[in-house]
Design a protein that fits this description.
Radius of gyration: 20 Å
Distance between the termini: 54 Å
Number of helices: 13
Number of strands: 16
Order of helices and strands: EHEHEHEHEHHEHEHEEEEHEHHEEHEHE
Protein name: Saccharopine dehydrogenase-like NADP-dependent oxidoreductase
InterPro entries: NAD(P)-bd_dom_sf (IPR036291), Sacchrp_dh_NADP-bd (IPR005097)
Length: about 375
């Protein structure tokens, strides 16, 4: 029996890639949902799967619970960000209609707070998962895979940098701009300290070269110190391939920090369009690194760098993949936890990489000298 999957935000940068991986799979009966039926129709035509259904749905409009109940999903994948200003109405509507729920949220408070629905989810026998994306899902899968190499893990530093020609959506841009220049809590030297979004900029080594990255406010900053006891420092950075865009964003962050700009995120559509003036520059190569430092089994210093590179425009498939992995595991009856939780420990790194097989994605692991 096929799993009835409702994909909200299906025509977006990440939603459309999830749709392409689920469509045509006999394990799923897929419904594409969003505010614009025109874009959903075009997506269905590109999928070449006439069995895919369409539904007009606006998660901020009234009557959401009734609309979801009428569609009778067994799994809702929520890819309509940004999540920083959202509440849990979609997850709560899923509980009301007896559906499991997975979202691609990268908002620190949103993902960290999903546990408030844990009691209701367990009572209903449902699974509510937040953060099925690069953060915290894939990042934690990398740390989990390498954790056995350390007797004591002391620091976790990870970063991402998309290729400049990679498609970008307003939701992603708004999510980044929302914390630029704003204070963020940072676990450093074994205690909470203050940093600022997009600042503490530094050069980061990726498989394809060095790029500038700055601090980002993501769920990992809140969740990793709890998940990995004894870790004394956790940091996450992101950056833009082109210096003019990265440092232009840094300048805007300073304007926010100085109080000149109050709400940078509301300018996301305009700034996204400006960034697209430069699509002819740079590359379609992006990636992710996770650097771990601590002590090995013999008490000697150990530093590891796991890295991923994505070419041929396949970078957006990285944040889209965790939701695909979870959907497949649910369809196969291979995902037993119930409750409401951040997306950590629900799949392995090997499972994530298997889902990326066939795309222009490479990984490597290096032992770094002190």
């Amino acid at each position: 029996m096929s799993l009835r999957v409702l994909l909200i935000g299906a025509s977006g940068v990440f939603g459309s890639r999830i749709a392409r991986q689920l469509a045509g799979d006999p394990r799923f009966r897929l419904t594409l949902a969003g505010r614009q039926l025109g874009s959903l129709t075009a997506l269905r035509e590109s999928l070449g799967d006439p069995s895919v259904q369409l539904a007009a749905l606006d998660v901020v409009a009234g009557g959401l619970a009734e609309a979801l109940a009428a569609l009778r999903p067994q799994l809702v994948i929520h890819a309509a960000g940004p999540f920083q200003a959202q509440d849990y109405r979609v997850a709560e509507a899923c509980l009301a209609c007896g559906s499991d729920y997975v979202d691609l949220a990268d908002g620190r408070d949103f993902v960290s707070g999903i546990g408030r629905l844990d009691g209701q989810a367990k009572a209903a026998g449902r699974l509510l998962v937040s953060g099925a994306s690069t953060v915290p899902a894939l990042g934690s899968a990398v740390v989990d895979a390498l954790l056995s190499r350390f007797r004591a893990l002391e620091t976790i530093e990870h970063a991402i940098s998309p290729g400049n020609r990679t498609p970008r959506g307003d939701a992603t841009v708004a999510a980044i701009l929302g914390y630029c220049g704003r204070p963020l809590r940072l676990w450093r030297d074994g205690r909470w300290q203050r940093g600022h979004g997009w600042m503490s900029t530094r050069r980061q080594t990726f498989p394809f070269g060095r790029r500038w990255v700055g601090l980002c406010d993501v769920p990992d900053l809140e969740l990793f110190p709890l998940r990995y006891p004894g870790v004394r420092g956790v940091a996450f950075r992101a950056g833009l391939e082109l210096r003019r865009l990265h440092f232009g964003t840094l300048a805007a962050a300073w304007l926010v920090r100085l109080g000149v700009i109050r709400d940078l995120a509301r300018h996301a559509p305009r700034l996204r369009r400006i960034s697209e003036w430069f699509l002819g520059a740079g590359s379609d190569v992006g990636g992710m690194v996770v650097e771990l430092a601590g002590r090995d089994s013999q008490g000697k210093p150990l530093r590891l760098r796991w890295s991923l590179s994505a070419a041929a425009g396949d970078g957006p498939r990285i944040p889209a993949t965790p939701a695909v992995v979870l959907a497949r595991k649910l369809a196969d009856g291979a995902l037993s936890p119930r409750g409401a939780m951040p997306c950590m420990g629900l799949f392995t790194l090997d499972e994530a990489l298997a889902a990326l097989d066939g795309y222009a994605v490479d990984t490597q692991l290096e032992v770094l000298t002190a």
